[in-house]
Write a structure and sequence with these properties.
Strand 5 and strand 6 form a beta hairpin. The protein contains 7 helices and 33 strands. The chain folds into 2 domains: about 260 residues, no CATH class; about 280 residues, no CATH class. The protein is α/β, with parallel strands linked by helices. The chain is elongated, with a radius of gyration of 37 Å.
């Protein structure tokens, strides 16, 4: 039986096999509809999941973006502080005020108490109460009026900073803050607002940083401050390319009668744009802390917006940093060199200290008490910037040669931290190893002679220089060399001051240099200095005779003394090599390119601690940093 043929014949060629299993038109439509529903359900589920994910992620992303802008605001504010520090280096170093190009101030026509001003001259003084410590018998205008070798200065300033920055706390030392920080802040804001409404913005001039009777003084603090000057709407680069704006304010703070020991308060306010869709976070405290201005600028922030309003639109965030900057003065150390430093090679020559402004650290009239006296101090600190060769980083940069140093010793590296022995000093048997450090560097900048004042004709040979008053010193110009001389008080008596500028050498082969009591003399010397074996300012105070070696433009310059020379003076000359020999005894301080003592005998080097607040700034350092986080 042909089953296969029979089967084929029974179905016929036009009928498909198993017709009951073939899809119908309705079945096709039902399949397509089910697929569409499933697809829609899947898309809807994914959309819901994506929405939930975005709902959770978007606020976090916004917060991260806003936090990044907040962090950039701090960097921008600190960049404003950097700009102000550079301006200080250019305009506030030395004895001459700078031009303060680009800075502005409000017109003095304002009735705001912070904007009253008074002129200041080269050696202008403040009342004795402004020193923050017990006044002494030191020379008027020399900056030696605070007791404790500057402790009154530090205490007064740090106490004042508590008020300036809103802390209201006092610092160490004799001075104390008045605890009026917040009150001062609010009053200053009101005064600033009044100045903005009634005053006219004008460019800053050097007299801006003159002594003033400020609001702070009215509150009873023992300092004087200047009215503020400011840089308006500085543009700062942002890591996130966000619009950034910085306002910088600067005040001069005078804690002592010496106008050159002025500190500076710097305040920098930076505003950085937030993303356009910035919103408040769930944490209200975080919004306040980060100082977000979402629709309108916070009222508190408008007080710091000096000059024209910020050009950064809302939403934005703002951060404010403040620093207190103190001056680096030329005579803060007994001996400071930029290169080599070599001490005595024989005898009992030693380095120690005393304080002519403190009767507990000196004898009659502020004189050195003697090396064996219990009044002699151990603050004869010495330091050098000298460095070792790159292939020999550890080794001596100071040759102590067995000299007793009653003070700290600092170097710019050269000491192996892995060993207990100070490799940076040779012959260190009489140096306390616990007072040795190797992280020191201080740039020595030449100080230029004053460019203001009326120059008098030099006196005839054998006649003394006549001092002017501390507020109006007598200026003399010596076109050649200067030899022995003396300085007498002003004709009407009282304290006196004089400035002598020497275009040639200072050479004392005979005679002496004599400065009358209560008189200060500043010498600016362009040539070499040779003191021979003469007594210089014997019986006086080091602050009374300040000698400044001027910039030699690379030409060699020397200061020399030998024999039994006795020198009472403070010397600053970054271009000068100091050579002492035999039994020279020096009372005061020396800052020079190099220092060498050959021999020694019974001489010595005795640092007067009161010199720490004498002289014009050679640089600045940050004493305190704080961020203002008030709303």
């Amino acid at each position: 039986m042909n089953v296969k043929g029979t089967h084929a014949a029974s179905w016929g060629p036009s009928q498909p096999p198993y017709p009951d299993l073939m899809p119908t038109p309705f079945a096709h439509r039902h399949s397509r509809g089910s697929t569409l529903v499933l697809s829609l359900l899947c898309v809807t589920g994914l959309a819901i999941a994506a929405a939930l994910t975005l709902q959770r992620i978007t606020p976090r992303f916004q917060q991260a973006s806003q936090a990044a802008a907040w962090q950039e605001a701090r960097l921008a504010a600190e960049s404003g502080i950097d700009v102000a520090l550079v301006e200080l280096e250019q305009n506030a170093i030395g004895f001459n005020d700078g031009t303060w190009t680009g800075w502005s101030q409000y017109s003095q026509a304002s009735a705001a108490p912070t904007l009253s001003s008074a002129g200041a001259s080269l050696l202008a003084t403040l009342p004795a109460s402004a020193s923050g410590g017990t006044s002494s018998s030191g020379t008027s205008g020399s900056g030696t009026g605070s007791s404790g070798g500057g402790t009154g200065l530090v205490g007064s300033v740090l106490g004042t900073v508590g008020s300036l920055l809103g802390g209201g706390s006092s610092g160490p030392g004799n001075g104390a803050g008045n605890g009026q920080g917040n009150a001062y802040g609010q009053s200053a804001y009101k005064a600033a607002q009044l100045a903005k409404k009634s005053g006219v913005v004008i460019p800053a001039i050097p007299q801006t940083l003159s002594l003033t009777k400020s609001l702070l003084a009215l509150l009873g603090n023992p300092v004087a401050v200047s009215p503020p000057i400011f840089l308006d709407n500085l543009q700062s680069a942002s890591a996130g390319n966000r619009p950034t704006n910085v306002d910088v304010q600067l005040w001069a703070v005078y804690p002592t009668p010496n106008p050159y020991t002025r500190w500076y308060r710097l305040r920098s306010v930076a505003t950085v744009a937030l993303p356009p869709l910035a919103t408040r976070t769930q944490d209200r405290l975080e919004n306040d802390f980060r100082r977000f201005s979402l629709r309108h600028v916070r009222e508190q922030l408008t007080y710091d917006d000096m000059g024209k309003p910020t050009n950064v639109p809302t939403p934005s965030t703002t951060r404010t940093t403040e620093v207190l900057v103190e001056p680096v003065l030329p005579f803060e150390l007994a001996i400071l060199t930029d290169q080599s430093l070599s001490l005595a090679t024989s005898g009992v020559w030693a380095v120690d200290s005393y304080d002519s402004s403190n009767p507990n650290k000196s004898v009659l009239n502020g004189q050195y008490p003697g090396r064996l006296s219990p009044l002699a101090q151990a603050n004869g600190n010495i330091a050098t910037n000298a460095v070792r060769p790159a292939n020999s980083p550890y080794g001596p940069v100071i040759a102590a040669n067995g000299t007793l140093v009653r003070g700290a010793v600092a170097t710019n590296g050269a000491d192996d931290p892995a060993t207990p022995v100070p490799e940076s000093i040779s012959g260190a048997s009489k140096i306390d190893p616990t007072r040795v450090r190797s992280d020191f560097y201080r740039e020595l900048r030449p100080l230029s002679r004053p460019t203001t004042g009326i120059f008098r004709l030099p006196p005839p040979p054998g006649q003394p220089f006549v001092a002017g008053s501390p507020s109006q010193p007598a200026f003399y110009l010596i076109t050649k060399d200067l030899h022995e001389f003396s300085v007498v008080p002003p004709p009407l008596g009282g304290a006196g001051a004089t400035v002598i500028m020497v275009n040639g050498d200072l050479s004392i082969p005979d005679g002496t240099i004599s400065i009358a009591p209560n008189v200060q003399a500043q010498l600016f010397v362009a040539g070499n200095i040779d003191l021979f074996n003469r007594p210089i300012n014997v019986g006086g105070l080091p602050a009374q005779l300040q000698i400044y070696g001027e910039d030699s433009q690379g030409a060699p310059r020397t200061l020399r003394a030998f024999g039994n020379a006795s020198v009472t003076a403070a010397f600053y000359g970054p271009s000068y090599d100091v050579h002492l020999a035999d039994n020279v005894e020096w009372f005061g301080a020396v800052a020079a390119r190099s220092f060498e003592m050959l021999g020694g005998g019974t001489g010595g080097f005795h640092y007067d601690e009161s010199l720490a607040i004498v002289g014009a700034p050679i640089g600045f350092r940050i004493a305190r940093y704080v961020e203002d986080v008030r709303e």
